[in-house]
Amino acid sequence: MDQYSGEKRKRDGEEDGSRRPRPSSSRQTLVRLSRAIVEIGEPSRYSLTETVSNLAHGLSSIEEDDVRGGVLSTIVALVSEQPQKVSLLSAAIQVANSTTPKFGQMVVELVHSKIEQFISEGDWTRVKNFVRFLCTLAPIVDGTGIKDFLLDLVNRAVQIQQNNSERDGLAEELYIIVLLALPYYVKAGEDDSGKLDEGRVADSEDIIRASREFEIKPQDQQTKILAPFMALREGQQVPFDNERFVVLVQAALARVVEDQWLVPNLMNTSTIVRKATGGREVAREEGESLYHVFPAVKMPEELEGQGQFRYPEYYFRAYLPTTLETVPAPDTYEAVLLRDVGSELIDKMDFNRREVTRQLITLDLFFASSAFADPGIPLDQLQDPKYQEEGRSTWKVEDVAIEAVLNHLFRLPSTVHPQVYYHTILTEACSMAPKAVAPVFGRAVRFLYANVDTMDVELFYRFLDWFSHHLSNFGFTWKWNEWVDDLELPDRHPKKVFIRELIENEVRLSYVKRIHETLPEQFLPLLRDVPEEPSLEYLEEGSPYNELVQNLITKLRSNTTATAPNANNDQTSTASGLPQRENASRTDGLSDEEQGAMLEEIKDKVTSESVGGRADDLDEKETLLLVATICHLGSRSLSHAKDWVSQTKGLLTKFIAESEERKNHVISAVLHYWRDQPKVGLLVLGFFVEEGVVPESLLVRRIVESDDLLLTSHGWSQLVYIVDGSDSETRATYVTMALTSISNKLNSLTDGTDEESKGWMNWWYAMYARSLCRKYHSNLGSSEGLSEQVQQFFDQARAL
């Protein structure tokens, strides 16, 4: 009771004493059916047959139009996002069709309309999923509609490719869509003994014959530039052949045809349908038909879109067979199907990474029970001779799932989603099933690390970023002792670089003392003691510039106080009351005379302390003093650094004037101040570029000409960030600048350098050139002046 009014308090949401209305029965029905559709096949207290029967009963009992529309929308979402479930969903629809043929007809019409819609939109990945779903519905489709449509797709693929002298990505997409769907078409209607429908087998044979007219174009140049691993040094070997997905699909279907269309690892949902219907064929009102016509699909004369095959799609591997096979061989139907389904889950469900992870590590639920080993089974148990004698599967669903994610993370020339998305999926997998997934992770990391000396440099840094991120989520623990012997390798060896950069990344993600506790003693020399904040040498006791720098700091800080937003000054304000950017970026409070006096004071002090010094040296010293002081004022955080560069822009611009030499000195000063944290130094330099103090081109030139910057993860990432953010013309200029610099470095490796070090420097330069050519192939200009090795990458990239 309300202690003041004596009346009973209302519940949240009540108005005029009435309670919030309960959801309508139709709404509750829609929620229940939608959940049943989305969760079909997942662990349940019901058997698969009971699950399918229950869903079918709900589907066949729908009376309200809004419920029916909501259910059909859910079906569209499921087929688009979770294609591994289409067989079970189809089974439920077939059972519902046996009692309510109108619902089956609506689904067939829905599939037809969606296929036409997605074709017109050029959304070929969704076309692929709906074609596969259509093939599972073959038992309730009358006539030759499905066969005619598949033949039309194949013939269009053949025609498009024949009209092009080069590989056509859309033609490959159409070809793959049909070939991946055919086993589903044949499998539909399989009896309990495994006997297939002869009519559908004959249809599929006709389609395969037509598909043999499709010519897969050789892609030697593209293969070289897109390969994840490359043997650049004599005696090196890549871990696996770079195999194109379309070639593997073709080989896989050839094996399926050779095996009389038997794919025992696909789930036999026809048996589930027969059990759920009690074996009855018809149960309908007079005049109704259990079978529905799939009309001809209207296809535009000119098809739009390139799908996922704009560039050749390659099959990345991380679990190569040693003593046993934990993933299907790449040229099997199961391998290409699982890779395709995993890719669809990852690409289409990026809005829910936890659900993506859960679906990936339970893919085995949607295949025959004998297709995979038990989830989480240790590798030792699979290697037991007794286990192998039983002839049971050694495929691990965890291996399949993780390899599918790594395939996306290491895709060239670029990833579909931001790399951190794939990091989070891998982290979620470890969190959801640590005992099952952690050993799988370990094997993948060991494989990748063992091959970093042939790994593309861009993938090298992706691997470094991912593994750093992963360790930060799991206490920075790793079996470092496995890598102890590699500490003896040359400093530029990729394995040594990987270890060193990994430790530096860990420090950035934590702090030195924490990382010190996780490293074995042998690795501690690589752990640099990074001070909590950089020291300004000119403020040290005994420095002749101590008093000068103290005065500069005092004047600049008082200037900031005088121009704070709350101060009483004449600053122009925006509607929000915040100072405008253009005013905040000036050294307000200091007149031109005061700025001049400050700069003159710096010059006089440097001159008096360097009597007889060269003018260039004096100029550099003045720049170091001024810029180091500004960096010191902004050293608390990146936001402070950005603010101080903005605040002192006027002073810096007045000092630098039009002198390119002084602008170069500014770059040197910032990098010197942040020498213990060079990544931060490059980020701070970005603020000087933003404010127009230093031109971007000078920073690019400094990165590409300095090995201490270029041959590091932070130097590479800053270079890519700048180039990516440039317009097309500027991008071409920067890429040419970088390739020319690398060519000069390759040509200038002297005989005085020991052969081992020389070989690895050559490796880094060549890998950088390869990556730049590939990433910016559309911005490549003239190849004049490039070294022979860089010229090869240039030509390969042009083939893209």
UniProtKB/TrEMBL annotation:
Residues 328-521, 592-700 form the MIF4G-like type domain. GO terms for molecular function: mRNA binding; RNA cap binding. One of its GO terms (biological process) is nuclear-transcribed mRNA catabolic process, nonsense-mediated decay. Coiled coil: none annotated. One of its GO terms (cellular component) is nuclear cap binding complex. InterPro entries: ARM-type_fold, CBP80, MIF4G-like_typ-1, MIF4G-like_typ-2. Residues 1-19 have a biased composition (Basic and acidic residues). It holds the Pfam family MIF4G_like. Residues 1-28, 562-593 are annotated as: Disordered. This is ARAD1D08250p. It comes from Blastobotrys adeninivorans.
